[in-house]
Amino acid sequence: MIRHRHALGFVAVSVTASLALGGCAGGADGSTTQHAGSGYSVTTGSDLDAYEAKAAGFYSSLALEGAAQRRTYKSLEEGVKASTAVVVAEVESVGVTRTFQGESPDDVVRFVGVVIKPTEVLAGRLAPEHSARLTVEFVTVADQGANLVADLKASLPTGKAVWLLHRKGEGFTPEQAAELLQPGETAYFRTISDQGLFLQGKQGVETPLTTPSSGHDLVREAQSYRSLSQVSAAIRAVR
Amino acid sequence: MIRWKPQRRSSMMSRGGVRRATALSCVVTLTLTLGFAQPAHAGNWGSVACGGTPKRNCVSLANNSYHVVNWIGDQDIPGMGAAVNWSLANNYNPTDLVAYYDASDPYPDVKAMDEPYGDIHLWGWAECPTNNTGVGGSDPNRWCRGQVVRFNSTYRDDLYTDARRRTLACHEIAHTVGLRHSNYKSSCVYTPIESSWSTRLTTEDQDHINSYY
Fold it and tell me: Strands B147-152, B110-115: parallel, antiparallel or unpaired by DSSP?
């Protein structure tokens, strides 16, 4: 049975974290949205295609080998269409967003939020409150959160990446959301799956959240592009 | 129904003999480190770190051939506990592991639990937590006792058949005995899960287990 007391299980980690992640919370408006091609300049190849050696390490620290992904996507087109928005973005900061405390004292899950600044919406739409910055949440294991954040802060990438984003709670009915989602969760985004992040690698496009055993078609398709600008062009062309 | 192999049951598990458990753990560590001939594994075998600091493993080996799972807390996903039991009995106990559910074991090899962790695109994951009851070795032979397997009840509606729950149970337990994701669709550790929903380990998966434990 789902217990509403879990609502109390989430605690804000610190005021500092909240301030650091300021601007990530969704507003009530949402009547207009920032969609592909409006308000952003098209990202040029020189912006996107620069290889940054440390970036893959930063992102792969957020991967969870062994996790059972709810859904994976067979093609770039399928992944793009499943996304709330696909954006080119820079990482601004990172922090612990929430802590889940289950019924057992052992059951603690911390979430790390990566605050990104979209520079172009390649596909889909972003609500106005997320057009300047938004927070993408990741699950961390055990009590790794604080230490992981310290590591991540020390290795923030400076370049851009392509994010296939899903607004948390999208697709849930109001009844489901009330029962199954956690308070405040819908303020955040996640990647569509471990397939949802593309990075410029030395030899071509990389998917740093996937593991070698991830044999997904979308991943293979993304990795077949030599540059982020090429895969971005393919994403813009998805209708 | 779980098929018992009582003749191989470790008394330390049921009696909670922590000192003996610790001593045995040390022996096992030493044995794994120095003694056992390490078979040449390939494919989807071996412990893997999740990344970050301090190092935590998302795929770990078990510390010995007795693999006891205890369910912690209530069940949010109807039938999930039964699926864990089924998988232990039908996938793992038939191997060289002695794998079973024991609700009375205060120091199980694996604690299983389900909670509404949220819209995180994960049905479940395994980890070696901070408060493990023993850890040793190095990847790909890093073992962990007191591992945690989490099932995400936010997506409980996806897990509407026995087959789906058994697949997920088999998948996450696999990560607690050293199996990584498989490239074989007939394996429960195949990814993407939704394209196979296999409830069973393959012969290759079982061979990995049998050659180590």
Answer: parallel
- What pTM does this model have? 0.82
B52 φ/ψ angles, rounded to the nearest 5 degrees = 85, 180
What's the pLDDT score for residue A133? 97
Measure the CA–CA gap between A163 and A90, rounded to whole angstroms.
Answer: 10
What does the pLDDT read at residue B9? 38
Residue in B50, B155, B168 nearest the CB of A64: B50
Closest residue to A106, CB basis, from B53, B131, B182: B131
C-alpha to C-alpha distances, A53 to A29, A32, A209, B52, B74, nearest whole angstrom: 40, 38, 16, 17, 46
pLDDT in tens, A152-173: 899 999 999 999 999 999 999 9
Q: Are B146 and B79 in contact (CB under 8 A)?
A: no
Distance from the A94 Cα atom to the nearest Cα atom in chain B, whole angstroms: 14
C-alpha pair distances (Å), B69 with each of A109, B93, B144, B173 = 20, 12, 13, 9
Rounded distance between C-alpha atoms, residue B76 and residue A2, angstroms? 6
> Which position has the token pair 């120095």?
B34
Q: How many CB pairs under 8 A join A and B?
A: 170
Cross-strand bridge partners of residue B149: B112, B126
Cα diameter, chain B: 47
Nearest Cα to B171, choosing from A39, A147, A65?
A65
3-state SS, one letter per residue, for chain A: CCCCCHHHHCEECCHHHHHHCCCCCCCCCCCCCEECCCCCCCCCHHHHCCCCCCHHHHHHCCCCCCCEECCCCCCHHHHHHHCCEEEEEEEEEEEEEEEEECCCCCCEEEEEEEEEEEEEEEEEEECHHHCCCEEEEEECCCCCHHHHHHHHHCCCCCCEEEEEEEECCCCCCHHHHHHHCCCCHHHCEEECCCCCEEEECCCCEECCCCCCCCCCHHHHHHHCCCCHHHHHHHHHCCC
Chain B residue numbers with beta carbons less than 8 Å from the beta carbon of A185 are 118-119
Which DSSP category does B34 fall into?
I
What one-character-per-residue DSSP string does B116-147 give? ---SSSEEEEEE--TT-SEEES-TTS-EEESE
Query: B-chain residues within 8 Å CB-CB of A100?
Result: 115, 117-118
- Smallest CA-to-CA distance from B64 within B104, B92, B97, B102 is with B97
What is the rounded distance in angstroms from the CA atom of residue B6 to the CA atom of residue B8? 5
pLDDT classification of A142: cutoffs 50, 70, 90? low
Tens digits of per-residue pLDDT, A55-81?
998 998 888 877 899 988 999 999 999
